[in-house]
Amino acid sequence: MKQITQSKIAGLFHAVSFSMLLMLGVATEAKADPLPTDTARSYDALSDGTEDTLGDTAELSRTSASFSKLAGHMTLQHAGVRSDDTDTEFSGDVYQVLNADEFFAKNKGKNGFCDQPVRWLTILDISKSVGPDAVRIGMLTIDDWRQYTSTSLGGCSSDTFKLQ
What we know:
Largest sheet: 8 strands, antiparallel, barrel
Radius of gyration: 22 Å
Strand content: 25-35%
Order of helices and strands: HEHEEEEHEHEE
Low-confidence stretches: 12-30
Number of strands: 8
Mean pLDDT: 84
Number of helices: 4
Strand order of the largest sheet: 1-2-3-4-5-6-7-8
Oligomer: single chain
Distance between the termini: 54 Å
Shape: globular
């Protein structure tokens, strides 16, 4: 029977350690989907000025959105995907705000919040450009999100958040 040398054991230990590190990296990458899920998750504000208008945190799911500085929550329903490569402010998954008028009435006149009811929320994963777990949340007041262009009126807020 061959003897196992100390250098072979060390080599095997390094190979196993390296493999485990690779697997950990893959697991970390797979976790980093910052888009809303069925369960509400917390996000920290990253954009300058967001804390003054929306607050320092947001709670998002596929069916609701709330912001720490605003009263109540938006009830959401997925409406489609807006993919305009030139407009990352209001691209991504589009959610209709089902209680737009009610939510607006609770928050009308708050410092910097939209001056009309938010009818659509857009949420875009911007992790590749900003950093891990980052999303851009856009708010549109236009009646039909399909009619919005980067040169039209109706975009009232665009803020960056990071999944906690």
